[in-house]
Amino acid sequence: MKPRPFAYVRPDSVDEAVAVLAAHGDDARVLAGGQSLLALLNLRLADPAVLVDITRIAALDQICDLGDKIEVGAAVTQNRLLAWPQLAEKLPLLAAALPFVGHFQTRNKGTVCGSVAHADPSSEIPLALAVLGGEVVLRSQRGTRVLSADAFQKDMLTTTREPDELITAVRFPVNSGRGVAFREVARRHGDFAIVAVAALVDGQGAVRLGVGGMAGAPAVRQIAAADGSTARGAVDKMAVELEGYEDLHATAVMRRDLLRRLGPVVIDEAMRCAA
Question: CATH for 179-274?
Fold first, then answer.
């Protein structure tokens, strides 16, 4: 199938982009990398009257070091962030997670903010954003607001972005842990994860454990002391609480079992990384 006819607008500035969104609201969609949106258009699951292409807005194509946070603009591709020389030092969890995002070819077009905007519960970047306690920056003609990751993504493919708002950037806290680890299970490398698990160990030895693919949005839990038995108990409790969901790729039972197997392994890797 092919998309229905739509108007195409390519603004030169953020102000122009938010003006178009203010004028068209729900009838407008934002195009950045297009790796999710173009498929939805072709399947006619999305039917916008106006497509707003932000890829040429120079102000959005920036990776900015704000000191305690790294701000990634809405036009920055996943491969550009992956190739950023300071990524492993400043954002080691993202350095571990980004190679699992799609394939080299899709990462050349797919954007970091686009993945967050799409809000797939199995997607790696929203999971990393949630575990790190990152933020999403939204701009409209009404002003700018900054939301925490958990306040932004509310459910499967559902966010709190208003129709007239543009995601201009996401912010990741710098080097938020002494040790990090990331693993996932997918049918093929580059597919969306069936279950993804990320762990971050802080300076006191506590672990932030994040799970994708088990609920409508990434789930994050704090584990105060993560020795072997404590980790297994916390992961088992998390599996029971989240329950999991069923789709074409896995049953809820399989997802819970994957979490129980992956969780302790990822926690152990993060603890060893922090040692």
Answer: 3.30.390.50
Q: Domain 60-173, CATH 3.30.465.10 — does that match?
A: yes
Picking from 205, 219, 270, 214, the residue whose alpha carbon sits closest to that of residue 246 is 214
List 181's β-bridge partners, or say none.
199
The model's pLDDT over 85-139, given as tens digits with 9 standing for 90+, comes to 999 999 999 999 999 999 999 999 999 999 999 999 999 999 999 999 999 999 9
Whether 112 and 78 have beta carbons less than 8 Å apart is answered as yes
Fold exhibited by the domain 7-53: 3.30.43
Q: pLDDT tens digit string along 53-90? A: 999 999 999 999 999 999 999 999 999 999 999 999 99
Map tokens 């080691």 to a residue. 92
Pair 97, 182: CB distance under 8 Å: yes
Using alpha carbons only, give the angle 24, 34, 23 rounded to the nearest 5 degrees.
Answer: 10
Residue 135: closest CA among 150, 153, 148? 148
Q: What confidence tens digit (pLDDT) does each residue in 169-204 have?
A: 999 999 867 899 999 999 998 888 999 999 999 878
pLDDT band at 228 (very low <50, low <70, confident <90, very high): low
Task: Provide CB contacts within 8 A for 7, sequence distance 6+.
Answer: 49, 50, 51
**DSSP structure class, residue 120:** -
Domains of the chain, residue spans: 7-53, 60-173, 179-274
pTM of the model: 0.95
What is the SS3 assignment for 28? strand
